[in-house]
Amino acid sequence: MQRLGLNVGGYRGERIDPQWVQAESRSAAVRNGWTVDFLPPDSLLRMAFHRPGKTVGAPNFYLSAGIHGDEPAGPLAVLRLLEEDRWPDANLWVIPCLNPQGFERNTRENLMGIDLNRDFLSPGSMEVRGQIEWLGHLPRLDLVLMFHEDWEANGFYCYELNDERRLPLAESIVEAVSSICPIEHHTEIEGRTVDRPGIIRPGSDPASRPLWPEAIWLAVNKSKLSCTLEAPSDWSLPVRVDALVAAARSAFHSFFQTPRGD
């Protein structure tokens, strides 16, 4: 398998229609018993889906995608998961596309030029303010997954924040993805030392982060266990979607195989 060689100076690959993806996601969600909500402000038409678990005491899982408008595999992976409907027994909250205006312009940032995934400490964007308002109504989350891509990457990798004294999830995630696409082999990714191939455990100390991504806000306010899943954008879009779907399924499976913290 070889990279496409399209991404020079930025993402130059396939694009998606965010409204189509959200409409298809809604159809699949409603068909399979999910309720539909909208993140504030309503004018952005950003959908969120919820479905309760089957058993009392089921864990709370959250999955988001599409916070960067040049990362199309994430929303398509959410659509695939909703269509296949093979979710674990958990209380589920899923957002397929956090930045539809970015996808319309094929830019990482929103319409105002703000990188939403660096805006969670002192939000200047209506998207992040609205998302934080919506998240405030959710309970504590036992597992958070965030779908991303990296147009410069040589392979898939994963950021894991894990303060729950659980066995890690990242190793099983990387193993599951390795049969689908290459794993990032560099020992440093975006200035962070790699724990092992394809795995970064950066720590969740908010004081060390002048610009908060979604993962840090969630670590401070909602969950001690999260994985940011990064597909390599210079491989074909179907491969990236397959990688993210496999990563999510592995995370769900591993969660139920590992002991809970005290």
Describe this structure in a few short sentences.
The chain is α/β, with parallel strands linked by helices and 262 residues long.
Question: Could you describe the 3D structure shown?
Answer:
By secondary structure, the protein is α/β, with parallel strands linked by helices. The protein is built from seven helices and ten strands. It has one domain (18-257): Zn peptidases (Aminopeptidase). It has helices at residues 18-31, 73-84, 100-105, 126-135, 170-177, 214-221, 237-257, and strands at residues 35-39, 46-51, 60-64, 91-95, 143-150, 157-162, 188-189, 192-193, 199-200, 225-232. The strands form two sheets. It has an eight-stranded mixed beta sheet, sandwiched between helices. A two-stranded antiparallel ribbon has the order 7-8. The longest helix has 21 residues, at 237-257. The model has no long low-confidence stretch (mean pLDDT 94).
Topology:
Elements: H1 18-31, E1 35-39, E2 46-51, E3 60-64, H2 73-84, E4 91-95, H3 100-105, H4 126-135, E5 143-150, E6 157-162, H5 170-177, E7 188-189, E8 192-193, E9 199-200, H6 214-221, E10 225-232, H7 237-257
Parallel strand pairs: 3-4, 3-5, 5-10, 6-9
Antiparallel strand pairs: 1-2, 2-4, 6-10, 7-8
Helix pairs in contact: 1-2, 2-7, 5-7
The CATH architecture term is 3-Layer(aba) Sandwich
Percentage of residues in DSSP E strands: 15-25%
The CATH class assignment is: Alpha Beta
CATH superfamily: Zn peptidases
Distance between the termini: 43 Å
Question: Secondary-structure element order, as H and E?
Answer: HEEEHEHHEEHEEEHEH
Number of domains: 1
CATH fold-level assignment = Aminopeptidase
Question: What is the overall silhouette?
Answer: globular
- Specify the number of helices: 7
- What order do the strands of the largest sheet run in, or round the barrel if closed? 1-2-4-3-5-10-6-9
Question: Can you give the mean pLDDT?
Answer: 94
The low-pLDDT segments are none
Number of strands: 10
- Helix/strand class: alpha/beta
Biggest β-sheet: count, sense, barrel? 8 strands, mixed
- Computed over alpha carbons, the radius of gyration is 17 Å
Q: Work out the helicity level.
A: 25-40%
